[in-house]
Design a protein that fits this description.
With 459 residues, this protein is of the alpha+beta class. It is built from nine helices and six strands. The strands form two sheets. Strands 2-3-5-6 form a four-stranded antiparallel β-sheet, with no helix packed on it. Strands 1-4 form a two-stranded parallel ribbon. Helix 1 (2-13) packs antiparallel against helix 4 (125-191) and helix 2 packs across helix 4 (125-191). The longest helix has 67 residues, at 125-191.
């Protein structure tokens, strides 16, 4: 009977989620939701996906920024202030070198200077940064898909845990009902002074009934905690009327593909692999962009400069440039080259180090993702075979318990036969449901490991 009590305890201990509050169930009609309904609501309400979407938008803004360097850049400077007066006679017919300056001979000037630069060729500075930003967007999209898969995995755990808690609660209720019936029979036989029962049997039945009632309450607690966890995952208030689907905890009898097909699916569809591939492409582009700093930027430049001041004659001579009164414009082909004596080399080395780091991450994923898939696959096979074996076991234990109770009712068997039969039945049936729970969790884990495309976040 001790094993039976441990089996009952497993119903609630599996769902002791820390930090999840409990509240009384409201009297309003409850919304019945299937597993798919819960997953859709969880994906819609998940703050992690909102953060991931913001990361995608941030990466898109970096692409826009990198692409904007292809376009002309215009810089305008406007000035206004005092300037000394000047007459044409000061330089004609000869330049006067002793003309003094006085505050009483000031006037006002205004000027506008504009330069426009159109990049022509940058040896990859622009194009490689655009490639890096484009692949960065794909990295963040894959990261969002990975987070969505983790949410689906967690909802599966909560939902199937809820079904497991309910099955264990029903098992405790069934055993409790059998114990209550046996106690009535024992009291009846004791009143008839039967030799097959004594007062100690009644005490044992009362003791086991009390323990069953205790574990029934704990199973109810586990069910409430599982519901609370589902509400929290779906972004619902803790007291929101919600009822998960009414289906039983069963195994869907489907053919399980070979392990190699799961591993191939994981390599092909797993978002982590896509992240690494896109990340390597982005890092390659960043290395090339850093190396481009060794070379100059070729550009086409334009200049416009205008200035005017009162009481200051304009001198039309290409050898004389008057910054306070002039009009100039021009266009030129130019090259700009920064020589930093080691800084560029350090940046290139840093980008290569990041690239090599991703190569190590890919090697780790290549070795460990198949191992993870194999672990989930073996758990699935084990749970399926265990459930089949335990089904036969608990069915025979049920027949044993029914026979023991019937013999006891007719006064043909001792009460200890009931205890032994119920202990075996409750333990085997609890193990049966645990195997089904393990099977469904392993199946959900395989969906996660192979990026099953049934539940994809909205882009």
């Amino acid at each position: 009977m001790k094993s039976f009590l441990f089996a009952c305890a497993a119903a609630w201990s599996l769902f002791a989620f820390t930090g999840t509050g409990l509240a009384a169930e409201p009297q309003a009609s409850k919304k019945v939701m299937t597993l798919d309904d819960c997953i859709r609501m969880a994906l819609k309400a998940a703050p992690e996906l909102g953060e991931a979407q913001s990361d995608i938008e941030l990466a898109a803004s970096k692409l826009d920024e990198a692409g904007s360097y292809r376009f002309p850049r215009l810089e305008v400077t406007a000035l206004a202030g005092p300037a000394p007066t000047a007459d044409r006679s000061d330089i004609s017919p000869e330049v006067q070198t002793d003309r003094g300056f006085g505050f009483n001979k000031l006037t006002w000037f205004t000027s506008t200077d504009a330069t426009i630069i159109q990049p022509l060729y940058t040896f990859g500075k622009i194009s490689e940064n655009m490639k890096a930003a484009t692949h960065g967007i794909e990295v963040d999209r894959s990261r969002k898909q990975q987070r969505a898969n983790e949410i689906v995995q967690k909802v599966n755990e909560y939902y199937n845990g809820l079904l497991y808690a309910r099955e264990m609660k029903e098992l405790v209720l069934e055993v409790q009902e059998t114990l209550d019936g046996a106690r009535k029979t024992a009291r009846k036989l004791l009143d008839q002074e039967s030799d097959t029962v004594d007062e100690m049997d009644l005490y044992k039945l009362d003791a086991f009934s009390g323990m069953a009632a205790k574990y029934l309450e704990e199973a109810k607690k586990g069910e409430a905690l599982a519901l609370a966890a589902l509400r929290a995952r779906m972004g619902m208030p803790v007291d929101a009327p919600l009822e998960a689907g009414t289906e039983r905890l069963v195994i869907v009898d489907v053919d399980i593909p070979p392990l190699e097909s799961y591993i191939e699916s994981a390599r092909r569809r797993r978002p982590e692999f896509h992240q690494i591939d896109e990340g390597l492409k982005a890092r390659t582009a960043l290395v090339e962009a850093a190396k481009a700093n060794y070379y100059p930027d070729i550009f086409l430049g334009g200049l416009f400069s205008w200035s005017y001041a009162d009481d200051r004659d304009r001198i039309k001579n290409p050898y004389i440039d008057d910054r306070f009164n002039h009009l100039n414009a021009g266009v030129a082909l130019g090259a700009r080259w920064k020589l930093d004596f080691g800084i560029t080399g350090a940046k290139v080395a840093g980008e290569r180090a990041q690239y090599n780091r991703l190569l190590s991450t890919r090697d780790y994923a290549d070795a460990n993702v198949p191992l993870q898939v194999k672990k989930y696959y073996l758990e699935l096979i084990e749970a399926k075979n265990s459930a089949a074996a335990m089904r036969k076991a608990y069915v025979n234990a049920k027949k044993w318990a029914v026979t023991a109770v019937a013999n006891f009712d007719f006064g043909l068997g001792p009460a200890k036969d009931i205890f032994e039969a119920l202990q075996a039945y409750s333990t085997m049936r609890a193990d049966f449901f645990k195997s089904i729970y393990n099977y469904r969790i392993a199946a959900a884990n395989l969906d996660y490991a192979t990026n099953e495309p049934l539940h994809s976040p909205a882009q």
